[in-house]
What does this fold into?
Amino acid sequence: MNSPQLQATLELLQQATQHLQNLLQNPISESNNREIIQEVETQLTQALITLKTPTNPPNLDHVPPEILQQVQALGLPLENLDIQMALSNHHLSQIIGILTEIQNKSEQIRNRRDYFLDRLPQMPIEKLGPRVPIVTAADFLPDYEPLPKDKREELIVKYNIDKLIQRRQQSRSSLFAKIKQAESFLNSQSKPLENSPEGEEDLRF
It folds into this structure.
């Protein structure tokens, strides 16, 4: 057995031992305690497989711990060398796909290990990440350079923009004044019936 293989096994065992020592010296909550123990189990399993593999031990660095925990939760023996090599040699999207498929068809699958090893190479490789594009504030910025201040002033003078704005404001004021004048005229023409002497003469009661 070559020394790099032994060195890798030793490092995994040292990491697991360090986690257990930290857990013993610094007690934490039960939920965090469970997570650390699961991580230690994964490291010990990886160390045993590395020790048993003669050459090219499986590398699971691309597989997150929660995915490895899901593998174990589905009843797939993580200590099995075939499972380890399959995880090592396939894309993460394929692994996630087959685990989801096994979970959805759990009642129909008799031998999950064989199903996993047979179907994993057939799973398509997909791009990981959000399917909906992420929109940021920068996407709403104009795609052109703002006009410099001196250029804006030059255009204002050239096209008499200030006068146009003033005329527009005056036009609005004139329109509102005409509307008020019309309302006043209508109010003066329509008087209440009880205030009209002629109206009283027309009543024959």
Q: What stands out?
A: The radius of gyration is 40 Å.
